[in-house]
Amino acid sequence: MSRWRPPSPSSTAIITREGFERLKAELDHLWHSLRPEVVRAITAAAAEGDRSENAEYIYRKKQLAEIDRRARYLSKRIPALKVAEGEPGDRGKVFFGARIALENVETGECLHYRIVGPDETDARQGWISIDSPMAKAVLKKRVDDEFGVELPSGPAQFAVISVDY
Description:
This protein is an alpha/beta fold.
């Protein structure tokens, strides 16, 4: 048995203007504020003597590695992203960037989502990735259209209540 695993499917390289600016600001903060601070802390911890038993030194080295990993990812991801500008021609259909209200047909529960890029999803705000099963199922639907989607809890039927950009 080998350890080889197929590569994970790549995420869609699309993002809103606000999400793009947030990623650029995060990279700038990591590189110009946080990283120099951690490097200074590593230098101070290294000056204290034996590094093998110095918990502060070990912790800061791990923290620096995490910062470098994230900065490396962002510096490769940001140029690959395509910023979705403007609104779609047909504002009555669900497309990228839409704010939608859905009603669960079986339970009557109302859900509010915004379809965004995979780099800016936030469950607390109701921002779902365009790569998610829910977003794929609702794309190009209009108000009052019903659709089915396979959720982790099982299949569900939804109706589109509103679409806004």
